[in-house]
Design brief:
The complex is a heterodimer of chains A (471) and B (199). By secondary structure, chain A is of the alpha/beta class. Chain A is 33% helix and 17% strand. Chain B has a single domain, classed as Aconitase, domain 4 (Alpha-Beta Barrel), CATH 3.20.19. Classes of the chains: A alpha/beta (471), B alpha/beta (199).
């Protein structure tokens, strides 16, 4: 029987198989480190007198808590500054390369890994962050870990791992006009639920996935965790190789590397523990209405009511979500007014995302009284966007144009929603309080967020032009 | 980490599904660089809510938390299990856990117990209807003695069970096998698939 992509990457990295001595030990090729989940791990190393085994396979940056404006003044929040300074000290002490606050290569850890060419097909990649699954877009096995495991990887460059199950999600059929990567993954999560892929490594396959750019594949893999998956992967192909080629850390003998990478895709007769099909032609742009990413509906639909659910636990969850979101149930999605738009994050903070949003915004103005901000995923994305004049498009329309970081996706820095504020956001989580205590989040694609910023309410980007003409 | 064997204690209820780690420990507390002291911030934004019962005196001293399905979803922050443990819990029972959260628990000496949904509902009802009722979780036998007198078994990987029973340091266990890691690295860097070395 043939092997899956996942199994091929696993087998290449199995230092020791599962046995009487314990679980399998998996080698880690690349360990990405940031300021929030690492300080306790470095303290643990110091207390035990252990070195970092492979600083040359470790890369650090600051992203979660950093300010996205006024960086020349440093970090005003004392605790955030201490955390960044701790990472700077730890990186120096243990010999780890670090792109800190003033580096032109600073950015969200899952944006800079790929854009600098560190993320490559067939690798194992971990980071103390659940959205590490992003790197699976390259055919890498990439997953989020906790701080104890961060310490484990720093000390041993390996992790003990139980064998996950495998699942393939087939996106069948062609993409309808106006439907993008974000809609594919939100649609899939809506279909399977927020724990639907628990315990599984998911391979995303099908015509729609093959047609996506690398940026789009990263958006899909990024949100694997929101469906409960351990990791998400896409088979590497010519689009993957073209993206990696020429980047800073790309293999020197690129042709030889590609030859190896071409052996990675799942064999035709490979078996998956589970399969799920998503009917792509029936998808419309997706918007979340509740407090989990699985509480999602097409923009053409309505907010559901608790009575539409059979399971009492679901009914209670929907009741609570509607109350938190300030909705009654039954509203048309397009009637929901918003007061904030956030464009950025490791889900949708790459250059293609900014271009898609700029195409909608060009020549328009942000609705009066609405706050809209663009936070590029990295300083390199920011520079590229400025080269293309996108900053002028956004600024001219009334968007704030910021420096790179996680920003309002999780609100650890000053970029937060106030209680009761309602955002259209290109990020990945709409949990209670995620973007600020009492804040209400509707997850959407970049073009949908941009359109909402212009109209002041959730709006179908496919009919946006007509809506504007009629306004 | 501290070994876990048998925990006999009150049971405290968190009767919600899909509790995410943003609720368990909100982001403003992730800026601390210490590993301890997170317990006072546990469920910080829910403390005024009617459904939040963990501060009620009847549940004081509870070492067992029973929760709804898919507990600990979302962010990988280990601050979430740190906060639960620091609050006083040694065991969390649910019908399912998010993968990263479950792993994080086992790395710090806290036991995640997966039971069938019906049994979890039974425990939840008892904990809600008879606050302060006690039950026993036995890791040696992999068994939970329910308040209604029944005993149900749970599954946990042998290696994880051994580590929790003995309080073993996971990194120490792996470092004892460092010769196989050395051999793997030597092989890979001689002939393996191309991966970049960063420096």
């Amino acid at each position: 029987m043939g092997k899956t992509l996942f199994r091929k990457v696993w087998d290449l990295h199995e230092v020791a198989p599962e046995g009487p001595e314990g679980p399998a030990i998996l080698y880690i090729d690349l360990h990405l480190v940031h300021e929030v989940t690492s300080p306790q791990a470095f303290d643990g190393l110091r207390m035990a007198g252990r070195p970092v085994r492979r600083p040359d396979r470790t890369l650090a940056t600051v992203d979660h808590n950093v300010p996205t404006i006024g960086r020349e003044r440093g970090i005003e929040d004392d605790l955030s500054r201490l955390q960044v300074e701790a990472l700077e000290r730890n990186a120096a002490e243990f010999g780890i390369p670090l792109f800190s606050l003033t580096s032109l290569r600073q950015g969200i850890v899952h944006v800079i890994g790929p854009e600098l060419g560190f993320t490559q097909p067939g690798m194992t990649i971990v980071c103390g962050d659940s959205h590490t699954s992003t790197h699976g877009a390259f055919g890498a096995l990439a997953f989020g870990i906790g701080t104890s495991e961060v310490e484990h990887v720093l000390a041993t460059q390996t992790l003990p791992q139980g064998m996950p199950r495998t699942m393939r999600i087939n996106f069948e059929g062609a993409m309808p006009r106006g439907v993008v990567a974000k809609d594919l993954i939100l649609g899939a999560i809506g279909q399977m639920g927020v724990s639907g892929a628990q315990g599984h490594v998911v391979e995303y396959a099908g015509e729609a996935i093959r047609g996506l750019t690398m940026e789009g594949r990263m958006t899909v893999c990024n949100m694997s965790i929101e469906g409960g998956a351990r990791a998400g992967m896409v088979a590497p192909d010519d689009a993957t190789f073209a993206y990696v080629e020429g980047r800073m850390a790309a293999p020197r003998d690129f042709a030889q590397a590609v030859e190896g990478w071409r052996t990675l895709p799942s064999d035709p007769d490979a078996q998956f523990d589970r399969e799920m099909d998503v009917d792509v032609p029936s998808l419309a742009p997706q918007v979340t209405w509740g407090t989990t990413p699985g509480m999602v509906a097409p923009i053409t639909g309505r907010v559901p009511t608790p009575e539409q659910y059979d399971d009492p636990t679901d009914q209670e969850a929907v009741r609570r979500a509607l109350e938190y979101m300030g909705l009654h149930g039954g509203e048309a999605m397009e009637d929901i007014a918003i007061d904030t738009v956030f464009l950025g994050s490791c889900t949708n903070g790459r250059i293609e995302d900014l271009r898609a949003a700029a195409d909608v915004v060009r020549g328009q103005s942000v609705k009066d009284g609405l706050r809209a901000m663009v936070v590029p995923g990295s300083m390199a994305v920011k520079a590229q966007a400025e080269d293309e004049g996108l900053d002028e498009v956004f600024r001219g329309a009334g968007f704030e144009w910021r420096d790179a970081g996680c920003s309002m996706c999780l609100g650890m820095n000053p970029d937060i929603l106030q209680p009761g504020e309602r955002a259209a956001s290109t990020s990945n989580r709409n949990f209670e309080g995620r973007q600020g205590k009492g804040g209400r989040t509707h997850l959407v694609s970049p073009a949908m967020a941009a359109a909402a910023a212009i109209t002041g309410h959730l709006v179908d980007v496919r009919t946006f032009d007509a809506a504007l003409a009629g306004a | 980490m501290e070994p876990i064997t048998i925990v006999k204690s009150k049971v405290a209820p968190m009767d919600r599904a899909d509790v995410d780690t943003d609720q368990i420990i909100p982001k403003q507390f992730l800026k601390r660089i210490e590993r301890t002291g997170f317990g006072e911030f546990l469920f910080f934004d829910w403390r005024e809510e009617d459904f939040y019962l963990l501060d009620r005196p009847e549940y004081a001293g509870a070492r067992i938390l029973v929760a709804g399905r898919n507990f600990g979803c979302g962010s990988s922050r280990e601050h979430a299990p740190w906060a639960i443990q620091d609050f006083g819990f040694d065991v969390v029972i649910a019908s399912s856990f998010a993968d990263i959260f479950r792993t994080n628990c086992t790395k710090i000496g806290m036991l995640p117990v997966v039971l069938p949904e019906d049994d979890v509902r039974t425990i939840m009802r008892e904990a809600l209807d008879q606050p302060g009722i006690e039950m026993t979780v036995d890791l040696e036998e992999c068994a939970v003695a329910l308040p209604d007198g029944r005993t149900v078994e749970f599954h946990i990987e042998d290696s994880v069970r051994d580590r929790l029973l003995n309080g073993w340091d996971d990194i120490g266990l792996t470092l004892r096998r460092s010769e196989v890691i050395d051999a793997y690295e030597a092989d890979r860097e001689r002939e393996g698939p191309v991966t970049t070395i960063l420096l």
